[in-house]
Prior knowledge:
Order of helices and strands: EHEHEHEHHEHEEHEEEHEEHEEEHH
Largest sheet: 7 strands, parallel
Structural class: alpha/beta
Shape: globular
Helix content: 40-55%
Bound molecules: NADP nicotinamide-adenine-dinucleotide phosphate, guanosine-5'-diphosphate-alpha-D-mannose
Amino acid sequence: MxxxxxxxxxxxxxxxxxxxxxxxxxxxxxxxxxxATNTFSKLKEHGILDKIELLDFELLEFSNICxxxxxxxxxxxxxxxxxxxxxxxxxxxxxxxxxxxxxVVYLLEAIRGFSPKTKFYQASTSEMxxxxxxxxxxxxxxxxxxxxxxxxxxxxxxxCINYSESFGLFACPGILFNHESPMRGSEFVTRxxxxxxxxxxxxxxxxxxxxxxxxxKRDWGFAxxxxxxxxxxxxxxxxxxYIVATGETHSIREFVEETGKYCGFDIQWQGKDEKEIGxxxxxGKIIVKVNPQYYRPAEVELLIGNPEKAxxxxxxxxxxxxxxxxxMMIKADIEKAKNN
Length: 340
Ligand code: NAP
Ligand code: GDD
């Protein structure tokens, strides 16, 4: 039986990846950090909590990481743990750079020292392209990160490539573009929108949804498709870097309109910039309001990846399209609101 360790098991991707690897017959070790209120709610929702062996893990505790590698020597390690919210990275830049950058060097060092046969996947990010230098972005597009998060992930990305070239480790960064699901954290914009709209539909909440820059564009895919690609990257005969994206981009404004439509809202935009509002044509009610509080110190305006290399070499392509993703998320949140 192959063994896999997944750090960040309590997050969005952790649950989807664990479920996928269990279906492939893996023994899965789920690494989590102790908290006062651990609920493992996503693993419970996936119905896999009792199928995973949970182990204590902290990205910044080198001794803990070394002990894990010495004791378990997993066949594969998927590093999904990170301070992953871009906005928070300006509030906590030192911690973000330590955890998301240095933490990955700790992992690589422990693998190099105690388990050099372990194949390592690093969750790299399209945030590294930041102020994009090329459209669409491909594997060798120059990077230009725009946040402490992007900077830290870029360090981790190069550390992976360097450890592979220097010490022969099988360490692969997969550059993930935004991917969403009904398990997405509530602070990320897609889920913030679907949770709020579901509340409006089911509980008749009247408070408008407040958003920042609604003109930013993202290449949104489905998390379930992207975890499969993480696994495919580690099954290839040589370590390499891949873009994981859909090749389509949509603005936050479009996501609001698409999910709003499902809720029966016909949103018409009025005003400009900070004064912009989205009004439901049928009822005249304000559904969305721009609030500059959610603007970022430096914005990533446009992301769109070209997944051609992944398709050609690994045979991967995303199964869930943009509209299907919008529907999946809003439908799930309306169901959850009804059941609460
Ligand atoms: P997520 O839902 O925010 O999950 C992050 C996970 O990391 C959580 O399990 C969290 O544990 C854990 N974690 C955070 N800091 C830690 C630390 N110091 N030590 C140990 N564990 C820690 O993120 P996700 O959406 O699943 O994303 C997975 C990975 O892909 C992340 O590395 C993210 O940066 C990267 N990525 C995501 C996307 C995307 O669109 N989702 C795109 C590109 C790259 P707690 O539950 O205890 O907080
Ligand atoms: N979160 C949030 N909240 N974002 C908003 C809001 C709001 O109220 N209003 C507008 N936005 C805009 C942000 O300014 C950004 O341009 C876009 O919506 C997406 O924001 P997020 O959903 O927070 O995601 P992100 O793109 O910053 O980061 C996600 O994707 C990265 C890959 O590109 C995260 O999952 C990162 O961990 C990941 O690396």
